[in-house]
Each structure stands twice: as C-alpha cells, then as structure tokens.
Amino acid sequence: MSGLSARAVTSDADDPLAGKRSAFVLDDVVYLDGNSLGALPAGVPGRVEDVVRRQWGELRIRSWEESGWWTAPERIGDRIAPLVGAAPGQIVVGDSTSVNVFKALVAAVRIAGDGRDEILVDATTFPTDGYIAESAARMTGCSLRAVTPAEVPGALSGRTAAVLLNHVDYRTGRLYDLPGLTATVRAAGAVAVWDLCHSAGALPVGLDEHGVDLAVGCTYKYLNGGPGSPAYLYVRAGLQDRFDSPLPGWNSHVEPFGMRGAYEPASGALRGRVGTPDILSMLALEAALEVWDGVSIEAVREKSLALTDFFLECVAEYVPRGRVESVTPVAHEERGSQVALRCPDAGDVMKRLIERGVVGDFRAPDVLRFGFTPLYVGFVDVERAARVLAEELR
Ligand SMILES: *Cc1c(COP(=O)(O)O)cnc(C)c1O
C-alpha cells in the first residue's frame, strides 16, 4: 500500500461523517458528480411511493390540507434555511433556479428604485443566469454590463440597480467573497442577488449573518433532491414587504382561494410563490433533506476542504507533471467543493474515467470537473480517483 492509500484509510476511520454514506443508495463507483446531480438518499423511494399511492391515490384532493401539500413550499424552505444560515420564514421552494433568478433580479431592480438603470452580471456566470439577466434588463429598461466579480467594486455607481453573482464558479470551483461583495454592493445602494447552486450544502453561506438581500439556488446538486427538484428563493425578512414579484401568480395572493380579480400579495416568504407547486418533486426533496438531520454544515466544510486538499495532493503525486493544470484556487477561502483540472483531451479522458468507475464530468472546452460531496465521498474514493486518473493520463 502506498503512503497515500494508507493515509486515506486512516482518514476515513477518523471521519465523523463517514456513517452518513449508508444514508445513500450507492455502489462501488466513485461518484464525484454530486455537484451536478446528488446521489439518491435511501429514504426517498419509500416516501415517493407513499406520496403517490396513499396521499394521491387514496386521499386525493384531501392531501392539499391533510398531507401538507399546500404549505410544502414554505415548510421545506424552512428545512433548507439552517443549511444556508437563514432564520425561518425567508425561503420558499418552487420553480427552477432560472425562474427564481428572474424573479429575484427583476424584484431587485424594482427595490433599487428610480434613477438606477444598470444591472451588473458576473461575466463568468453559469450561462442561464446571464441569459435571464439580459432579458430582465430589457424588460426593466436597464442596461446590462458583464464584469468579473473582482471588477464589481469598481463598476458600481449611482446607476447600479442590481448585481447578479455566483457564490461558487461552476467551472473552476472558485469561491467568491459573499460577505465582502454583499457589503460593497449594499454600500453603493444597489441590491445583490446571489446564486448559491454550487455552495448550498457544501459550505456555510451565512445569508442572515452577512446581510444578503436576495438569493436563489437549486436543490439537486449538494442537496440531493433528485433530477429537476424545485429550486428555492430567499428574500431577507426586512425586504419582504418591498418584494414585488414579476410573476405574481395566485399562489402568492393574500387570499388564493378568494379567486379575486385584483392581485394583492401575501406577506412573508410565500410572496415568492407563483403557481401550483410540483408536489411529487417537492416531497421527494423533503425526504432527501432528512439526511441533514444532525449534520453541521461546518463539519461538512471541514471535510470538503480535506477531501479537495487530499485530491490535489494525490494528483500532484500520481499524475505526470504538466499533464493537467488545476484551475481551482489553492487558498481555502477561495475554494468551493470541487476540483477542476484542465487538460487538452479532457472530453476523452472523462469518458475513460467513467468507464472505469470514476464519475466526474467534462465542461467544454477542456475542463475535468470533480465534485466532492462530504456526506458520501470518502478519502479512499479520492485516492482511487486520482490513481485511475493518473493511469488514464499516462
Ligand atoms: C446548476 C446551476 C443552475 C441551474 O439552473 P436550472 O434552472 O436548475 O436549470 C443555475 N445557476 C447555477 C450557478 C448553476 O450552477
């Protein structure tokens, strides 16, 4: 056994989160794609079966009340809240991240008020955010400027209405300074919207602590909600009365069953709702979130950094020098929960890795992405992934 594989065994034995792996349905594949689609929590199939057969099949319409379907968006929002550092009553679950980016960004421009007619968007953003920002800008009469997060402080002006930022870059795994950027945007009188897709469930976000106004995120990556599980929208309590949704559906009406002609928004987080929630996906997500019972996000972060450190160390030891280049920051305060390695033949390399039971993904044009989900990835997995990678790169 090499020194690194011996250390992996010891690290797994000392890992306080190691027992969580059995809460997931897994095989002997090294699954490093939980930053794209989280693994299946073992409690989900039984719950979905119950929701379909009993709640829908037997109780039918009664389930809106008796099975808690109607209030699920707020209830599940409150279950996500501690994972992102939010007090209850500020998160609502529903729709996709793309749709929630739209709601949040247009609402941000409306909150910022007259005279502010520019939106800044992260130039390196996940594409959907950029597309939505372009449309939101056109609809609100704003101009749109793409800047890197580092350029945001210098780009802010009295014209800036809203700034749309990613907490962790989906391609490089770079973690941005949410507290610092939020404070800077606020000081300029603008409203920041944070996309937490690659940070929620992987590291502490501290939404309340850092005074974040608006945030969105998906639930099928580190939160393991399943393919297409609904996203969430955070609106800071102090801002909820000013949240003017561009999609004011009947579910966010103060009296949804009053069937009134005129729209009057409800108060609180449910103001972010639109139409009838996708109950099957939503309740699968609720079951999936039970794996977080008793887990501290600080412990998750500690293990995540240890896993990515160890992977980088194994890669440096095993892979011929110069064959790959890491584009993930070395500094912990700038690293999310993934490692991205650049190599010219990344697409082919990833195909071969997947054939050999090491599943990451490929992002065009030349990036190998490996996501580390501390609830079910261990150090032995990490060492094996690096070893197989090195064999394929030789
Ligand atoms: C995954 C991801 C999305 C996905 O948006 P959907 O509407 O769920 O398809 C959006 N933004 C970021 C930053 C992401 O990483």
UniProtKB/TrEMBL annotation:
Cofactor(s) this protein cannot do without: pyridoxal 5'-phosphate
Record pathway: Amino-acid degradation; L-kynurenine degradation; L-alanine and anthranilate from L-kynurenine: step 1/1; Cofactor biosynthesis; NAD(+) biosynthesis; quinolinate from L-kynurenine: step 2/3
E.C. designation(s): 3.7.1.3
The keyword Ubl conjugation appears for this protein: no
UniProt: pyridoxal 5'-phosphate binding residues: 97-98, 126-129, 195, 198, 220, 250, 276
Keywords: Hydrolase, Pyridine nucleotide biosynthesis, Pyridoxal phosphate
Keyword NAD applies: no
Residues recorded as bearing N6-(pyridoxal phosphate)lysine in the entry: 221
Enzyme class of the recorded protein, top EC level: hydrolase
NCBIfam families tied to this protein: kynureninase
Subunit organization: Homodimer.
Free-text function comment from the UniProt entry: Catalyzes the cleavage of L-kynurenine (L-Kyn) and L-3-hydroxykynurenine (L-3OHKyn) into anthranilic acid (AA) and 3-hydroxyanthranilic acid (3-OHAA), respectively.
UniProt protein name: Kynureninase
Organism: Streptomyces chromofuscus
GN (gene name): kynU
